[in-house]
């Protein structure tokens, strides 16, 4: 157990629907990062939050949004889902706002859009 | 921004042999270089990291080397075992950078 908790582990939904993925960072970590991993692909950075505020944006679609709450958990909202959104979505956390502190990853949410 | 390239994309070795995965980076300000192992159906897990004030770091059968002049770093796994089979990602980041920049991954298969 890495200490980063992601729920749900699996999600199957239809095109056009909206889903919410949840992440609880490791205790004491203030930063949360979201990554998308499509089949046999690398890790695509989506967005980062630090202590409730958005810090960096990557290749995140306009149909996707995220937020970090006062208790530091984060949610990634995916709307108007398309077949191509099917992927593993990972959350990672670290103590500070910088990449050079390393990440701890959760076990991911597997999203299947049918 | 930083660009990290990783080679090879796939690697097969016989059990007991060594495996080497290489990465290059573009930003000379990068100073932190971790390696992650991702097993099937799991999240990436940090296995070793190195900072730019060190040229080599070892942890049992794994080692990482860094050449700042050439802007490349490598992962070395000796005496490979079947449980080393996984996808390995290199990454780079620098002071002030908000996030890690990942390579595209290497799928390592250790043949018993």
Work out the oligomeric state of the chains in this entry: heterodimer
Q: What is the succession of H and E elements of chain A?
A: EEEEEEEEEEE
User: What general outline of chain A do the C-alpha atoms trace?
Assistant: globular
Taking Cα atoms only, what radius of gyration of chain B do you get, to the nearest Å? 13 Å
Number of helices of chain B: 0
Give the overall pLDDT of chain B as a whole number.
Answer: 93
- Strand residue content of chain A: over 45%
Structural class label of chain A: mainly beta
Task: Please provide a written account of the structure.
The complex is a heterodimer of chains A (114) and B (112). Helix content of chain A is 0%, strand content 50%. With 114 residues, chain A is mainly β. In chain A, strands 2, 4, 5, 6, 9, 10 and 11 form a seven-stranded mixed sheet that branches. Chain A has a four-stranded antiparallel sheet with strand order 1-3-8-7, with no helix packed on it. In chain A, strand 7 and strand 8 form a beta hairpin. Chain A is globular. Chain A starts with a strand and ends with a strand. The relative contact order of chain A is 0.33. Chain B is mostly beta strands. In chain B, strands 2, 4, 5, 9, 10 and 11 form a six-stranded mixed sheet that branches. In chain B, strands 1-3-8-7-6 form a five-stranded antiparallel sheet, with no helix packed on it. Chain B is globular. Chains A and B meet through strand 10 of A and strand 4, strand 5, strand 9 and strand 10 of B.
